[in-house]
Structure formats: C-alpha cells, structure tokens
Design a protein that fits this description.
mainly beta; 10-stranded mixed β-sheet; 10-stranded antiparallel β-sheet; globular
Amino acid sequence: MKKVLLILGVVSYCLSIVAKAQAPFTTMDSIDINHLRANVLMHGDMWYDPEILRYPGTSARCYATNDSENVSDGGGLWVGGYDANRRLHISAETYLGAGVDFWPGPLDGNDTLTYSTSQNWAKIWKVYNTDIQQFQQSTVHTEANTPLSILTWPGKGNGYATGNNGVLLTINEDMAPFVDINGNGIYEPLLGEYPDIKGDEALWWIWSDNGPTHNSTNGDPLDIEIHAMAYGYNGGTLIDNVIYYEYTIVNHSANSYNNFRFAHWDAAEILYPFSNFIGFDSLWRMGINYTLNDNGGGGGNPPRYRSVMSAITFIDLPGDTGSSYLPAGSFTYYNNDSSIIGFPFIDTQFNNYMRSKLKNGTHVTNDFIGRGIPSTEYGSGPECNYVYSGDPGDTTQWSECNCNNSPGDRNYVLSSSDCYVEKQSANMWE
C-alpha cells in the first residue's frame, strides 16, 4: 500500500479596496522543490490552472512525487468579520470563473485598488536561498552581478523594483521583507541587502480585497491587504514534505473587526476527484483529505490500489502563546451542487461555512452512533464544530469510512477561531 503525505502549512499575519469589471489575471508560479510542486495565482487562489477547462483532474496544479499524484484541484483564502454595527464584511474565493473578490496589488491612500495598479502588481517574485548565499559572498554589488530576483525584489524604497511586464514600481510602504543592514528602512540591494525569505525556495506576492470587483461573495470588503510568502525546504528531513504559506493581513480600514475568521478552502482531490474522503484532527488543527482505493481513477489499466493522504494545518495563529495553541474554529465541507450543503453563492453562505454551519445557517451536528449506521452532518445529534473528526482506523469514532459514506468530490473549509482585528493594524497566520 503506497502512502503519500503532503502537509500544507498555513501561517498568517493581520495588518490593518471598486471600478467596473475587468478580466482577472492568470499569472502563475510554483514552489517546486523535492517531491512537491504547488502553484499560486494572483487572486488569493492556488493549486489549479484557470486557463484549462475544468474537466476533472485536468486543471490540478498541486502535486506530490514528481507530478505523479495530484493532491488538490484548487484552494483559496476566505476572511470575514463584523464591524461595530454587526455588519458582515467578507472576502472569499474559489475559482476565478465563479467571481473575484481579491486583486493583486496594494491599496492606495483611499483604500482602493485600481485595475491599472493591479496590472502592475500582477507578479509573483521567486527567490532561491542559493542565490542569496552566493550574493552574500560578493564584497562589491553591482546591477550586473546582482541576481534579478534580489535586485528587483519589491522592498520598500527599492528603485530597481519591477512588477508585471517589467514596469518600475514606486514602493513607499512596507512590502516584501528584506534584511536591512544599515537599518534605514529602505531596501538597497547594491549595499548588500537581500530578501528575507524562509526556506530554500520562496514566492512572495500581494493582493487586496477592494479592487475592480468583489463579485465572488458579493459582500462588503474589509479593505485589507494580504502579503503572502510560500516556501519549502530541501534539507533531507521530513519537513521537505511540507509547503508553508505565511500571510500577513493588513487592515487599512477605519473598522475594527469582531469575530474575525481566517479560513482555507480546499477542493480536495487525490489522484481521482471522485474517490476522496475528508476528516479532521483537532489536536493538530488539521483538515485531511484521503483516498483508500483509487482503482486507477475509476478504471485504470492496470488498476492501482493505494492509500494516499494530504492535509492542511494551521501552524501559527493570533492568540497562540508558547506551547499553548488555540483550537481551530471549524472544519466543514460542501458538495458541488445547489443543496443546503452545496456551492456558496452569496456572502452569508460563505460566512456560514467558516462558522460550522450549512449554507442555510443550520449548525452542523454529530449524530454518529456506531459503525455502519448512516450519519449526516445535519442530523439529530449534538451541534459540533468539526465534521468527521474521528480516526478512520477506530471503528468507534465518527469518520466517513465508519459511516459507510461513498467517496466523492469534496470541498472543505478549515477556519481559525474568532479573533479581534483592530483598525489600521496587522496580524499574522501561518
């Protein structure tokens, strides 16, 4: 039995933009290290190719074991909270064809993002630690001998920073992190300063939620920027099987947000999209996607039988202190249909999925009473925050296997617990 494990670690920070509709950007790049390859896009989405028609499995761009095992067909960030008047503000995305709430680039002085600015920032910056190490060995730095990834890094004040199509960027605010050798707050690569990345390979990009459209949730934006870094290691250890995502959320608005939640949506897909189960491990704040019998993607020749698993976990959340970790807020899922546990279309439905509820606002329940007895997430049992939270290997616990569920094409939402985000402030998630 073959087992492939890919853990996607999520880290976030919070720092505290509307024009006519424009086409979204399809810029992509990927973390491509060891046995893993996972792409990111410009609108808070990842792990698929929007330029490919979405037939099952064809657009997936999140792989393990050298492109042989796709482990997801799409992913994205969802964020939502309430202002002082209890008005919901929310931004969330699935696939670009379903609407766009996030746009690449930072907010301006009016907390908005124009299409032209977004176009200039529709770039993902990629850096290798080996380039940084070689750069550090030089005593004299010139435009000619400085790698472009270091020279054009979008650090504050960098006169060489370039965006999409080589356009020069004017950066007066804190953007991509860098090692500030002289402490003046300005990124100066020719003075020996360099990107401050994690891992052996890293991507950095930025997007905001008050841009040209907000028609994924059709709700009120939060007026936030998200500064993102994806990275991986090549050290010959188990962490080589992890891709990390670190998010700094900058709240530019005049609102402080109560009951703020940060969530990750995953269109779970291992090998074949209709052979998947989901589960949750509360100790590790981990949403899990697994398959027990792929059978060659529904009839391969010869058939393949294997056990494969991928997972997403929150590594660091606001409120974590030392060895004390806040529990995840919720783990729920939906199907690709129009039922009460189907695809979300409006702001309240996205928000419900981040808060242990079905699309219609009904809280999920756990009515598991024994192996082989059908169980649903909206039965007569007690309310719960996490669906299918039991060990599939333990017949006394609530899992899709023990309920004799049929495998399928799952979408799950892993959410943080409630937190408070002050106006004009910053927080982090990983």
